[in-house]
Write a structure and sequence with these properties.
Number of helices: 2
Largest sheet: 10 strands, antiparallel, barrel
Number of strands: 11
Helix content: under 10%
Structural class: mainly beta
Amino acid sequence: MIKPVGIILVFIVVISLGSCMEPKALYVHLPDKVNCPGFKEAGEAKAEISIQPIENSTRGVPVIYNCNLAYAPINHLGIIASYQGTHNLNLNKDYGNTGFFGNTSTEKFHLSSSLVDLGLGFFTKDGNKGLLECYGGLGIGFIKNSAMGYDDPGDYFGNFYRIFLQLDYCYFYKNALLIAGFRTMDKKYTAFDIGSNAEIDSSAIKQIKSDNLLLLQPFIEFQTGNRFMRFSMQLGCQIYLQGFNSSAAAGDQYNLNSGYRFNPSLLYLGLGISFHSAPRFGKVGFGRSAGEKKSDYW
């Protein structure tokens, strides 16, 4: 039995989420919803679309949007693919009485970004209601900011890749599913360029290009619906471990001489709808045979 693993994961995730704080950062990283399929058998497939509402978005599209796909070609083996994007996302970040430039107390960002992930992993059932799954993979993407005014850090553009590994435990109960887990990721910028209007110090640019950004992402997700269509809510955060002056992660220290905090956006909420297909859904009677529980079919 692996059920104790699931109980421990739920406990640690809840404690970790409570430790997250509001982001105060130059936006070189945006959080994304974890793709956790919750598969039980070979031939199962899932397609999900979701959004992450953004606080302090003033204009443009006020969300980060995600598309997650997954398929199990054989038993215990799963393939996942994900896309995350933003387009003309305008953010105002209020830092209180003192700002980064002069007397201004608000930073403005005008962001566009894109991220594509591909991963492979395994899953194994824990009785009728439990499931343990682990996936790892590689992602590539970019992030871009366009200047909006004097209190904006200026134009910048970066390409990056990331390597990730995730572990989660799923618990099925009637028409609901609870998932708790972690994802670790190592993110590296292969290029980071700034415009002539950028307020970013050259030493900070050098650090962005040289450092690996290491993050730990605890999350908890709730799904409900029927076997073919489900609604989901995922709450998570990304805990800053290493890179971009990690000593600034827990406070307001500045990075080198740039005047920027490199704490990435941490707490997030993802709201989604997913569509599912599995061989067990097509069994005779759209129900269950003698001795089988309803959770076996969800």
